[in-house]
Amino acid sequence: MSGERDQQRPMEAADAAVHWFARLQDEAVTGDDWLAFEQWLAADPAHAAAYERLEGLWVDLDDLGEGVAAAMDAPVSLAAHRAVRAGQGLSRRGWLAAGAGLAASIAVGVGVANWPMTPVDTYATAPGQTRQLTLADGSKVWMNAGSRLDVRFERRARRVEMAEGEAAFDVTHDPQRPFLIATGDREVRVVGTEFNLRQRADDFALTVRRGVVEVRPDGAADAKPTRVAAGQQLTHKRGTTVGTLSATTPDAAFAWTRGQLVYTDATLSEVAADLSRSLGTPVRVADAATGRMRFTGVLTLDDKDVVLRRLEAFAPVRAERGPTGVTLRRR
Amino acid sequence: MTDARSALLAAYLERREDLVRFFAMRLKSPAAGEDLVQDIYLRIAAVEPGVDVRNAAGYLYRLGSNLMLDKIRGERRSAARDHDWRDSHRTVVGADEVSEEPPADATVAARQRLEAVVAVLKELPDQTQRVFRMHKFDGLSHTEVAQTLGISRSAVEKHCMAALKRLAERLR
């Protein structure tokens, strides 16, 4: 029915206009995105009208800015984000820790039919959960627990943003569309290869099993990349300018995909953090001395109690089960 | 890292025609489009060399769009002054206008509008309020909001969309 269509059209235009408006404020938007926006605007007078209405709203809000800020509760300390603004550089990093506590994960869905831009697909795993994905280009991704990926395939690039987590990638070869992963303050560029990427808090670790992967500071497309070849591992701490490239046995980094954790001289704090994610139960160390103990061995992740018993057998610790999780204490 | 200005200049030269076409359409006038793109060129010289230009072409379009919004803003403000209260409510001492206070009814209208906006924003989830406020009212970029809150840029975008959508639906 034509009446129904006419009812629907302005609604769609309004939603699409909101998408474009918010999307185009992002710094990573490309010239091609703007060309796509131009096409959308020109496609229908209702599109331009809806977009202009938003611009009017946006400008109107400026006049209310002070009042709105005063009337709303201060959800984030103003001093905190003013400092971010003033910092404009590495000093921002200090605020990440402060911000992390506020980063409750909320999924906001705005449904739009026929959304004209490349959509972003978000994949997330909870603690204790892993997930295998096949992306639209046939690339395979195996996500470890407590990870999140935003995937966006554009005409000239396949883009993945991994704010936090660990995943093993087997990327299909496509020289026309490089596979780019942004994580922490690094960008990983892939042509076609298999590797494991881990970003936990500030620590980045990339292990390549097959092929070659290039790593640059995120946002510095011209920087000379670090090339990581099969059998090598690159580690880097966020905010620093250096990384460490070393020879490794790639299978150890991929072990989690087989349900195993493999450690060579790791600290018990690291083991506890991995177990918390993999078992879905908080696992803590009782004190700093326990956290500094060293552990070498393979833990197979099957049953939680069995895993903890194995850990007790391999290391001089006792796993105390309490109502809020497990505490590892030196024996 | 290469100098931000030279990256922008290169993008400007490459995209000039696209920019003129785009802003001519947006401003519904080829001459106004040409002027605006000229303004973009002048702004490139003023860009700080260290500024984070993640994508030079996108940066130019955004710069131009902000110049356009500044224009709309200026027009609206002077229109509001002229039509709403200026002519009916001015105090002149010699040749100078001394009254800067809007009359009571304009103040009431502004307060009602403010209350309506705040009411809509307060219905949103906390994180959405926070993101929108930091971006819109505190002037942080999407990247800065993402870094401050420890979320992805696409999440910032989604929160902004949700807030805008609600405001656009509810405010007339």
Instruction: Summarize the helix and strand pattern of chain A as letters.
Output: HHHHHEEEEEEEEEEEEEHEHEHEHEE
Given the structure, what is the number of helices of chain A? 9
Main sheet characteristics of chain B = 2 strands, antiparallel
* CATH classification, class level of the largest domain in chain B: Mainly Alpha
Principal-axis shape of chain B equals: globular
Distance between the termini of chain B: 46 Å
Assembly state (oligomeric): heterodimer
Explain this structure.
The complex is a heterodimer of chains A (331) and B (172). By secondary structure, chain A is of the alpha+beta class. Chain A has three domains: 6-89, no CATH class; 122-249, Jelly Rolls (Sandwich); 259-330, Phage tail protein beta-alpha-beta fold (3-Layer(bab) Sandwich). Chain A is built from nine helices and 18 strands. Chain A has helices spanning 2-23, 31-43, 45-71, 78-87, 93-100, 250-254, 268-279, 288-291, 304-314, and strands at residues 121-124, 131-134, 140-143, 148-153, 158-170, 179-183, 186-190, 194-200, 203-210, 212-217, 226-229, 232-237, 243-247, 260-267, 283-285, 294-300, 317-322, 325-330. Chain B has 172 residues and is an all-alpha fold. Chain B has two domains: 1-102, Orthogonal Bundle (Rna Polymerase Sigma Factor, Chain: A); 103-172, Arc Repressor Mutant, subunit A (Orthogonal Bundle). Chain B has helices at 4-27, 30-46, 56-86, 104-123, 126-137, 142-149, 153-170, and strands at residues 92-93, 96-97. Chain B is globular, with a radius of gyration of 20 Å. The model of chain B is unreliable at 83-101 (pLDDT under 50). The chains are: A alpha+beta (331), B mainly alpha (172). Chains A and B meet through α1, α2, α3, α4 and α5 of A and α1, α3, α4, α5 and α6 of B.
